[in-house]
Amino acid sequence: MSEHDILTDAERQALREVMQAPAQAEQCVLIVDDEPIARDLLAEFLTLHEIECLTASNETQALALLDSERPIGLMVTDLRMEPHDGLHLIRKVRESDRAELPIIIMSGDAGVRDAIEAMHLNVLDFLLKPIDPPKLLHLIKQELNLDLDL
């Protein structure tokens, strides 16, 4: 370090490490729905808005994706699925290493009891179908810290 340097050797090394670190991958949304058309339409809608998606048709696929190294920042799940419903999936997530994962649940057939249980499981929101696309997009962008201009 010379008298004209403003950085110490340690600071210079730390800066070098930061500059050489790989860029953090953008977080994606995991869509879980056993209805292929609904799942694919939602994934296409989000992709059109430049939000990367992964899809799963059931709890087993969703948990496998969550156990992977994929940068999943949010899960959107249907309530009514077979053989396990969305609440069962959320309970599994809350008991895992991904317990803090933000989750949005959607349903076309939900009762008050379902909504209360979902809120006890700390879901971000409970949306009734048909989904309001601008509202869902806003929630997702807000949670993933993306540009909120719709």
Q: How are the SSEs placed, and which strands pair?
A:
Blueprint: H1 9-20, E1 28-32, H2 36-48, E2 53-56, H3 59-67, E3 72-78, H4 86-94, E4 103-107, H5 112-120, E5 125-128, H6 133-143
Parallel strand pairs: 1-2, 1-3, 3-4, 4-5
Helix pairs in contact: 3-4
Mean pLDDT: 87
Helix-strand sequence: HEHEHEHEHEH
Write down the CATH topology.
Answer: Rossmann fold
Overall 3D form = elongated
How many separate domains make up the residues?
1
- Helix/strand-derived class? alpha/beta
The Cα radius of gyration reads: 20 Å
Q: Note the total helix count.
A: 6
Summarize the structure.
The chain is of the alpha/beta class.
Main attributes of the structure:
single chain; 150 residues; alpha/beta; Rossmann fold; five-stranded parallel beta sheet; 6 helices; 5 strands; elongated
Question: Could you explain the architecture of this structure?
Answer:
With 150 residues, the chain is of the alpha/beta class. It has one domain (26-143): Response regulator (Rossmann fold, 3-Layer(aba) Sandwich), CATH 3.40.50. It contains six helices and five strands, in the order αβαβαβαβαβα. It has a five-stranded parallel beta sheet, with helices on both faces. Strand 3 (72-78), helix 4 (86-94) and strand 4 (103-107) form a beta-alpha-beta unit. Helix 3 (59-67) packs parallel to helix 4. It is elongated, with a radius of gyration of 20 Å. The N and C termini lie far apart (49 Å). The model has no long low-confidence stretch (mean pLDDT 87).
